[in-house]
Amino acid sequence: METLWLGYNGLVLPFHEIVAVLHYQPALDGRIRQAYGQVPQGVMAVVVTHHGGYLPTRWPAEQLRRRWATWRSSTVKR
């Protein structure tokens, strides 16, 4: 699996583009609008991309961090 669906129609992000996963806070709304065009309902976390975008996600931050960590550990050459 190379991509992560963020819980909204058409919003998929390759794992390698993720640099951070943040808990959602209304203070991030401006950044979300800048990257996504709107702040959709049900945002639980925000994924920060290597391009500096802040994308909303319906998944809890802890769940996203686990999935991201699993992906990273699978890409490490042993």
Structural class: alpha+beta
Percent of residues in helical segments? Answer: 25-40%
Instruction: Summarize the biggest pleated sheet.
Output: 3 strands, antiparallel
Query: Overall mean pLDDT score?
Result: 94
Q: Calculate Rg over CA atoms.
A: 12 Å
The ordered H/E elements are EEEHEEH
Morphology call: globular
Find the count of extended strands (DSSP E, 2+ residues). Answer: 5
Annotation field: number of helices? 2
- Low-pLDDT ranges: none
| Share of β-strand residues | 25-35%
| Largest sheet strand order | 3-4-5
Cα distance spanning the termini: 19 Å
Overall description:
With 78 residues, the protein is an alpha+beta fold. The chain contains two helices and five strands. The protein has helices at residues 29-36, 61-75, and strands at residues 3-5, 12-14, 18-23, 45-49, 54-57. Strands 3-4-5 form a three-stranded antiparallel β-sheet. The model has no long low-confidence stretch (mean pLDDT 94).
